[in-house]
Design brief:
The complex is a heterodimer of chains A (about 120) and B (about 110).
Chain A lengths: L4 E3 L2 E4 L5 E6 L6 E7 L5 E8 L14 E5 L5 E5 L8 E8 L9 E2 L3 E5 L1
Parallel strand pairs in A: 2-10
Antiparallel strand pairs in A: 1-3, 3-7, 4-5, 4-8, 6-7, 8-9, 8-10
Chain B lengths: L3 E4 L2 E5 L4 E7 L4 E9 L6 E7 L4 E4 L2 E6 L4 E6 L8 E9 L6 E2 L3 E6 L1
The chains are: A mainly beta (about 120), B mainly beta (about 110).
Chain lengths: ~120, ~110
Amino acid sequence: GAGVSQSPSNKVTEKGKDVELRCDPISGHTALYWYRQSLGQGLEFLIYFQGNSAPDKSGLPSDRFSAERTGGSVSTLTIQRTQQEDSAVYLCASSLSRVSTGELFFGEGSRLTVL
Amino acid sequence: GENVEQHPSTLSVQEGDSAVIKCTYSDSASNYFPWYKQELGKRPQLIIDIRSNVGEKKDQRIAVTLNKTAKHFSLHITETQPEDSAVYFCAASEEYGNKLVFGAGTILRVKS
């Protein structure tokens, strides 16, 4: 596609429910990132995928968070048993290779609201 | 791990004035420093970046300076315009690093 695509753009859920957020990166980009942006906060790194290598999960805040990337393309971020503090905008980004070699292209984000 | 601090959190300037945003980083191994601009309701976009083998880089009205000894870098915007109003994020990464660590962001308001 022309850019990074994320869905849903908005998700309202009840506390305790599971949610799945989807990211479709730019075709040919081997690196895929998930960041979280809480209101008034910066961009918090969650997880990184590079090709077929093991993902860097060092930013996942708890074991309720997981992500996978199938076939080196589409990625899904899953949050189990959502809590109110999970409310944020979840941004996906992709790049041709390592972040230090070029630009990160961000999606529009998925705004999650946990009631 | 890397920690990036950004100041100020908000900045208001008159149209035509200059704006300066400063960031410090903790990991001396970091040597790639991009700046991203996020307009209201939109996605962050890269506006300029600098690597550690360069002390300053300019692109029209924006410039970035880097002081590796002091571990800080700054974004300079000259002749500010209303369309410069946005949130600006600095970031740092190692040369062979896998992730960008972002600062908390600066809300820039340009008053006309």
